[in-house]
Amino acid sequence: MDRRAPVGIRFEAVSKHYGGVRALDRVSLEVEPGEFLTLLGPSGSGKTTLLMVLAGFSRPTSGRVLVGGEDVTRTPPHRRDFGVVFQSYALFPHMTVAQNVAYPLRMRGRPRAEIARKVADALALVRLEGLGERRPDELSGGQKQRVALARAVVFEPRVLLMDEPLSALDKKLREAMQIEIRRLHERLGITTIYVTHDQAEAMVLADRIAVLRDGALQQVGPPEAIYRRPANAWVAEFIGLTNFIAGEVAGRQDGRLVVRTGVGTFTCQGDVPGGPVLICVRPEALHIGATLPNRLRAVVRERVFLGNLLDYRMEGADGLRLRVQADPSQAYVPGVSVDLAFAPDEAWVVPAAGG
């Protein structure tokens, strides 16, 4: 398929109100040309509303949306030249696969020869060669989603929008389709906005993740930064599993924070100036029996076998609850007391009121 120069997107203080409900609250966000950005958040966070505002299906109460430097806030959807993939596939049941994919081209009045060529290219792109004459009811869920993808990109849109397109698929197929979507983006280079509530899916797909909560933007950054350096306690808890150790900032040492807690004093990474804080330590960052600067003692309360690792529920002093994930070779039975340790660079400090 031909490639167009990718465009950037800018949301400027976009708000959307439904009566007294603020679905979006002054969201400002920039998307780089050719970037794959995932909008991530729980149900009701505003991620789909933001996507619908970008698509033109919903007009913001205030703020602007710019695409390629052009203000499209009041531009109708059919004039924005966006490809859209929905969760429900939205395929025409009376049309063949090829006819479904050709539909956007026919609506644009493209010549037959061009339509045939572009449909063939799009089906090859999503690995559905030879299935053009089938109807949607003859396809698997994964194949239907590939048809929807082919239809969304066949006319070379300026922007590709996807609203939880894989949520109806089973886990194995969903993971396979994640790789396909990532491959498709790398091949086409289209600026892509992808909505999901699945943290793992966002991590696999995104160049950057925008985390939303109650209509407000919480944090934007690459997946690793969101995971290892959450902006607040809510983001830390929402993105994967984390342990929180409450304490107070006692000072700085060698560029790190020193935090005094009920189970010990620890050195950690963070930008909090002082006051009550929470140390965020991921389960895989708590090492059993390791020689590291930050140490504490805990009792194994429960052990769960997860195949490639053991998931421990442990209890420290003052009733501190901890999750620890370790290699199956480290097998400890409930009731055993163990030494835990974590490196200063594997712990991140956030304000205690940040959640």
Describe the 3D structure.
The chain is 24% helix and 37% strand. Helix 2 packs across helix 3, helix 2 (97-107) runs parallel beside helix 4 (141-153) and helix 3 crosses helix 4 (141-153). The protein is of the alpha+beta class. A hairpin with a 2-residue loop joins strand 9 and strand 10. The model has no long low-confidence stretch (mean pLDDT 93).
In short:
With 355 residues, the protein is α+β, with helices and mostly antiparallel strands. 24% of the residues lie in helices and 37% in strands. Strand 11 and strand 12 (256-261) form a beta hairpin.
Task: Throw out a few tags for this protein.
six-stranded mixed β-sheet; five-stranded mixed barrel; OB fold (Dihydrolipoamide Acetyltransferase, E2P); elongated; about 350 residues; Rossmann fold; alpha+beta; 2 domains
Biggest beta sheet attributes? 6 strands, mixed
CATH homologous superfamily (4th level) name of the largest domain: P-loop containing nucleotide triphosphate hydrolases
Number of helical segments with 4 or more residues: 8
Secondary-structure element sequence? EEEHEEEHHHEHEHEEHHEEEEEEEEEE
Binned, the helix content reads 10-25%
Total individual domains: 2
Uncertain residue segments? none
Question: In angstroms, what is the radius of gyration?
Answer: 24 Å
The share of residues in extended strands comes to 35-45%
Strand order of the largest sheet: 6-7-8-3-9-10
